[in-house]
Structure formats: structure tokens, C-alpha cells
Design a protein that fits this description.
Elements: H1 3-21, H2 24-28, H3 40-45, E1 51-55, E2 58-59, E3 63-64, H4 71-81, E4 85-89, H5 99-108, E5 113-116, H6 122-130, E6 135-139, H7 145-157, E7 161-166, H8 169-175, E8 182-186, H9 198-204, E9 212-216, H10 222-228, E10 233-238, H11 240-243, H12 248-258
Parallel strand pairs: 1-4, 1-10, 4-5, 5-6, 6-7, 7-8, 8-9, 9-10
Antiparallel strand pairs: 2-3
Helix pairs in contact: 4-5, 4-12
């Protein structure tokens, strides 16, 4: 069993527990539930940099990346740097995140927020909306076409955008549907953790133009972004590269200024 399989088994258990504690009515009563969402896809289309900066304390492949800064410090730094949006990891067991991180991020900035999570249930989409997210991530590797369809349709009803993550042609072909806004190619194989920009390059021409193309993981230089832009990529998700520094906001500012 690979790490992704383990995460999904744990996630399904976690959702069952959460549903037993916090009813849907409580999520729907959140102050953020009626808030108008901010479009990341539009922001990316109009941006020169396309940076989606990530708040990420640790990961299964790297263990602790950075525990020294508050969520507010990191996300305000990203907003001031000119990031198009912010990805907030909310998985606790493997990434050290929480829904509180999303809530604090929403209270601190006014740019699009992605709930970065292993979504397997509509309940998690309600949580995302209740905690101030503007969009959700769906991972093709762990969902069937029917699940992608029903989850993305549910997100749309809540006025949330959908970033679908793929890693190969098979995942892309099973996933393309009108309820998606952005398609992200993960340059890290979630099963082996091997990283290569070739994954983004190989899939670029297969992604229809109506979707905003996003390249995720393994981007650590401005050169990598310049390399991917001719392939039609408008968004670049960067996490560890900023988070592993002494000041994520400053690192993001320096990076974006070079683009």
C-alpha cells in the first residue's frame, strides 16, 4: 500500500467522525457560508506571474518544513508579495494543517484561497465553504469519474471553483468535464514522490484551452516557470520553496519580482 492509499483510508475515517460531531446545519450557519467567492481562474488568466503560494508545515516526503511562523504571517506575506492565490493545507496527520489554518488565512487576506485537501466526500466541500475557501482541490488519482462529476457539481452549487489535479493522460482523460475550472498537473508522482517538469510538458497539449492550466510541485526556480509558460501554463503552485526559508513572504516577493 502506498502513502496515497493510506491517506485516503485515514481521510474516509476522519470524515465519518467529523460528520458525527459537527452537523451540516452548523457548517451552513458559518459567517463565511454566504460570502461571495473570489475567482482564482480569472486572477490567473490576468496575471503575469501566476503564483499560487502554499502554506504547508510538513509533508510525508520531507517531514517538518517549517513550524516557526503563524498562518497570518505567512499568508499576509504572500498577499503582499503579489501571489494570485494561496493554497492552505488542511490535512492534520500527514501535513500538520487544519481547518483553523484556513479560517485564519481567510481572516487575514483578501485573495483566493484553495482548500488543499484529500476530498472524498461532499461534507469536506461544505467545510471548505464554511471556513472561507474560494476553491477546492479534487485529485483524479483517488476518485472515479462519477465521483469527480458529483463532487465538482456540488462545489459549483456552493459557488466554489474546482482545481482538478492529474498526473498522467489516463487520469486527465477520465476527468475532463465542464464543472472544472482549472486542471493542475502534479509534477510529483504521489506514489513514488519522483519529481519532473516533464509531466507538465507532456500533458499540456492534451488539456483543452477552456481550462486554466496549472503546474504543481517541484517548481523551485523562475527558469522552471519560463520553461513552462510556452506550454500554456497560467498557474504555478509553489509550497516548499517558500516555506523552507526564514521568511516565506520575502522569499515569495523576491521570486515574483524576478518573473
Amino acid at each position: 500500500m502506498n502513502i496515497l492509499d493510506k491517506i485516503i483510508i485515514d481521510k474516509k475515517r476522519e470524515v465519518v467522525l467529523k460528520k458525527s460531531i459537527i452537523p451540516v446545519s452548523q457548517l451552513e450557519a458559518s459567517v463565511f457560508f454566504g460570502k461571495q467567492t473570489i475567482s482564482l481562474s480569472q486572477t490567473l488568466r490576468n496575471s503575469n506571474s501566476g503564483i499560487i503560494a502554499e502554506h504547508k508545515r510538513r509533508s510525508p516526503s520531507k517531514s517538518i518544513i517549517n513550524n516557526n511562523f503563524t498562518v497570518e504571517e505567512v499568508v499576509k506575506g504572500y498577499e503582499n508579495a503579489g501571489a494570485c492565490g494561496i493554497s492552505v493545507l488542511t490535512d492534520g496527520k500527514y501535513f500538520g494543517g487544519s481547518l483553523d489554518d484556513l479560517l485564519l488565512a481567510r481572516a487575514s487576506v483578501n485573495i483566493p484561497l484553495l482548500r488543499k485537501e484529500f476530498i472524498v466526500d461532499e461534507y469536506q466541500i461544505l467545510e471548505a465553504k464554511a471556513h472561507g475557501a474560494d476553491l477546492i482541490l479534487l485529485i483524479a488519482a483517488v476518485l472515479t469519474r462519477e465521483e469527480i462529476k458529483s463532487l465538482s457539481e456540488f462545489a459549483k452549487k456552493l459557488d466554489l471553483e474546482v482545481l482538478l489535479e492529474v498526473h498522467n493522460l489516463e487520469e486527465l482523460e477520465k476527468s475532463i468535464m465542464p464543472t472544472l475550472d482549472m486542471i493542475g498537473v502534479n509534477n510529483r508522482n504521489l506514489k513514488t514522490f519522483e519529481v519532473s517538469l516533464d509531466f507538465s510538458k507532456e500533458l499540456a497539449s492534451k488539456i483543452p484551452d477552456e481550462f486554466v492550466k496549472v503546474s504543481e510541485s517541484g517548481i523551485s526556480s523562475v527558469e522552471a516557470i519560463q520553461e513552462l509558460k510556452p506550454y500554456g501554463y497560467k498557474g504555478f503552485l509553489i509550497g516548499e520553496n517558500f516555506m523552507k526559508t526564514d521568511n516565506a513572504g520575502e522569499a515569495a516577493t523576491e521570486f515574483i519580482n524576478q518573473i
